[in-house]
Amino acid sequence: MKRARTTTISPKSPPHPPPPPTPPQKLHSRRVPLQWAPLNLPQSELYLPLTLPTGQTFRWKQTGPLQYTGAVGPHLISLKHHHDHDGAVYYHIHRTPSDESAAMCALLDFLNSHVSLADLWSDFSASDPRFAEVARHLTGARVLRQHPLECLVQFLCSSNNNIARITKMVDHVSRLGHPLGSVEGFDFHQFPSLERLALVTEQQLREAGFGYRAKYITGTVDALRAKPGGGEEWLASLRKLDLEVVIDSLCTLPGVGPKVAACVALFSLDQHHAIPVDTHVWQIATRDLLPDLAGARLTPKLCSRVADAFVSKYGQYAGWAQTLLFIADLPSQKSLLPSRDGNIKKNKPGKKKTTQIASW
Question: Pfam families, from UniProt (predicted)?
Answer without folding.
Answer: HhH-GPD (PF00730), OGG_N (PF07934)
